[in-house]
Specification:
single chain; 322 residues; alpha+beta; six-stranded mixed sheet; six-stranded antiparallel sheet; 8 helices; 12 strands; 20% helix; globular; binds fe (ii) ion
Length: 322
Amino acid sequence: MSYSANAIAGQIGKQGISELPGLFSAQAARQLQDIILSMQPFDKELFLTREEWEASPKTHKNTNPGPGTSILEKLEDKLAFVEENPQLKALLTELLGPQYRIYLKKLVCRLPGKNIPDWVHDIIGGTTANSLGAFIRPQYRNISYYYDVDVHQDILEWPRQPEGQKEHRLLYMYVHLGDVTQDNSPLCFFKESHRFGATPYQHTITHIAGDQWSYTEPFDGRNMTTQLWPLLGEAGHAAIWHPCLLHGSHPVKNDSIRLALRYVLARDKDAGHCLIDEIGNQIDGLPYLAKDHNPGANANKDGSFNLQDNDFTRMGRNGIAQ
Ligand SMILES: [Fe+2]
């Protein structure tokens, strides 16, 4: 499979996302998944007991893997099928500049409901479980665990970027380590929603019918009809998207564990013209927001998420077709 950086930039600019089937080895992805699944538990053993939770700070801050705590740091040599892929390197050089950076990378896991203790379900029930990290034993906080994820933009992370290293000229890339179908919590993107730029979480997005949704941005009240775009494919399947593209995911329906590599890729600060600059020209809105609207940072004092139910969450939990 041969890809053109210009075509990818055109798709990201217009749609917000570009899928890259066949770019990475399915076999290498599956092998990595098997290794990870053998390294630690992925069931209720991951979690604190209710008593331990009650005695904990109940904060969601710093419960995601970071430098020194990511499981991927033990697996660097197994990531070459992605990071050293010659075609990816050539594409990123055109998109982000010759000295493009892997700004952040982590392993993301969707856990099926049966692998989550009842006491955690009691706390997250009726809300959108944006991160399970605070409920996880500290030694296993080397992966980002989720049950489902409300509709959000990844540029939400901007206020938490370290001072002096803040960067919004980013692309996000996902690489599935197993096969992803409608039944195991695919990321669901809202096509073209990046064009209004960064907007505060929780977003005003309501279901119209079928795969059609209505999105209204809060600053000028502009509205668009957007289409749901589930990211489906076999192991190794990848996609690159814009930081302001709305997306979320519903709970796993088939009891499987979904693992994916998530990369944040940054522009070469010193490079001249790059294709990401042309993508940015198509955004009519803010590139990022200064205030942290992250649901974890704004959780209730008992650790529960201070979130409103919405169409996306309700439909996912009730098993209604997307
Ligand atoms: Fe995201």
